[in-house]
Design a protein that fits this description.
The complex is a heterodimer of chains A (285) and B (103).
Chain A (H helix, E strand, L loop, with lengths): L1 E6 L3 H12 L4 E5 L11 E2 L9 E2 H14 L3 E4 L2 E7 L2 E6 L3 E9 L13 H4 L4 E2 L2 H4 L8 E4 L3 H10 L6 E4 L13 E2 L3 E6 L3 E6 L2 E4 L2 E4 L6 H6 L5 E2 L2 E2 L12 E3 L10 H22 L1
Parallel strand pairs in A: 1-2, 1-8, 2-5, 8-19, 9-16, 10-11, 10-16, 11-12
Antiparallel strand pairs in A: 3-4, 6-7, 7-8, 13-14, 14-15, 17-18
Chain B lengths: L1 E3 L5 H6 L5 E6 L6 H15 L4 E6 L4 H6 L7 E6 L2 E7 L4 H8 L2
Parallel strand pairs in B: 1-3, 2-3
Antiparallel strand pairs in B: 2-4, 4-5
Classes of the chains: A alpha/beta (285), B alpha/beta (103).
């Protein structure tokens, strides 16, 4: 059992890990990419202590190295799901499963949706982002599962219990998993329906479906957190003044909670969240 | 208090209500729905007589849920004068729910 799993190794996550380390708490930091700063062409020049402007990507890599030098465990992996297990959490990644007393979400904010005609119209009317939440409404129905990798398999596991009539739509991506059901390889052009979704049009033809579940790539943190029941407002995860969500033990910091999308703010959030997690763990023990 | 709405009482308690009614469509197997319950308790205590707060189990009362086309839970719907006034999917804060109720 871990004390803290920090998801995201940008300025918020790494700052939290450093401040926790100073309080004697070893966090496990799991990150998957360099976040918003990765593809940022301009150099960062507005952050304290930078003698010369540097690329955001390099700043993030420096942060990860800094944490490792301090003896903090930092790994690269994708989180697939987050579950409450009694008072604790189970963090499932593409490669492993971790049990932890607290979780800090510091993933930044990218929301993966499918920008195709009809997506917004049929969201909640046949299109679902969450098998565990909505699978029940599609018992014995003909459904599409849109995805191609581990996340798709995770959702498939659950949907299989609801219906046997599942077709995988890869949306033009190579499939990275073994499945024994029909696969449509074409790129999705649009979602079609009347009151509810009825068809998916792809470059390979049009298919009749009664529901479509989206599980492309890896879930964004807002996606896996909303499966737990966190409050999300205006695409921001809502936290109290202690950086804790409405779920005890689940904290968040950085861009994901809104406010200024700045490195200095994310680092400040990380420090405060570390203090709050420290107090929370002390109370719990 | 938080009401329990059913197929039998839906007409009287919700559609014919004099005050706005917030209904959470939920089910026992729905993880996120469990997080809505404490928010509804607080909301009900806050709004007192100004609105009715309640929930409807989509498994037990599937007729009402089907008629309204509920395909995702938790769905929260505010009814005013017998009609759907506002509708939202997912866990919401107490403040947001008050706004949906127009309070």
């Amino acid at each position: 059992m871990k004390d803290v799993v920090i998801i995201g190794y940008g300025p918020a996550g790494i700052s939290a890990a450093i401040y926790l380390k100073r309080q004697g708490i070893d966090a496990l930091v799991i990150g998957k990419d360099l976040g918003a700063l990765e593809g940022y062409d301009d150099k960062v020049e507005n952050y304290y202590g930078l003698k010369e402007p540097i690329f955001g990507k390099d700043l993030i890599i420096n942060g990860i190295e800094q944490a490792k030098h301090l003896g903090i465990e930092v790994i690269t992996d994708s989180v697939i799901s987050l579950k409450s297990v009694e008072d604790n959490f189970e963090v499932k990644t593409a490669h492993d499963i971790y049990l932890t007393r607290t979780v800090l979400l510091a993933t930044g904010k990218t929301r993966r949706t499918l920008h195709r005609p009809g997506f917004s119209t049929y969201r909640g009317k046949g299109i679902s982002m969450c098998a565990i939440c909505d699978g029940f409404f599609y018992r014995k129905k003909k459904i599409a599962l849109i995805g191609c990798g581990t996340y798709m398999l995770h959702e498939l596991d659950f949907l299989r219990k609801m219906t046997s009539d599942i077709t995988i739509f890869t949306d033009g991506n190579p499939i990275k998993a073994d499945v024994d059901m029909p696969i449509v390889h074409g790129k999705i052009k649009r979602f079609i329906g009347s009151d509810r979704l009825t068809h998916i049009e792809t470059t390979d033809g049009t298919y009749e479906v009664q529901g479509a579940f989206i599980a492309l790539g890896v879930p964004s943190s807002l996606e896996f957190a909303s499966q737990l029941g966190v409050i999300i407002e205006k695409n921001n995860l809502k936290v109290d003044h202690n950086y804790m969500s409405n779920i005890p033990g689940l904290f968040a910091a950085g861009d994901i909670i809104g406010g200024k999308l700045q490195i200095v703010k994310a680092a400040y959030d990380g420090m405060n969240a570390a203090d709050a997690i420290y107090s929370y763990l002390n109370k719990k023990k | 208090m938080v009401y329990t709405f059913t197929t039998d009482n839906f007409d009287n308690e919700v559609l014919k209500s004099d005050v706005p009614v917030l209904v959470e469509f939920w089910a026992t197997w729905c993880g996120p729905c469990g997080r809505v319950a404490p928010i509804l308790d607080e909301l009900a205590a806050d709004v007192k007589e100004a609105a009715k707060i309640g929930k409807l189990d989509v498994d037990e009362e599937y007729k009402v849920a089907d008629d309204l086309g509920i395909m995702s839970i938790p769905t929260l719907i505010v009814f005013k004068d017998g009609k759907v006034h506002q509708s939202t999917i997912g866990v919401q804060s107490k403040e947001t729910l008050k706004k949906l109720l127009g309070l």
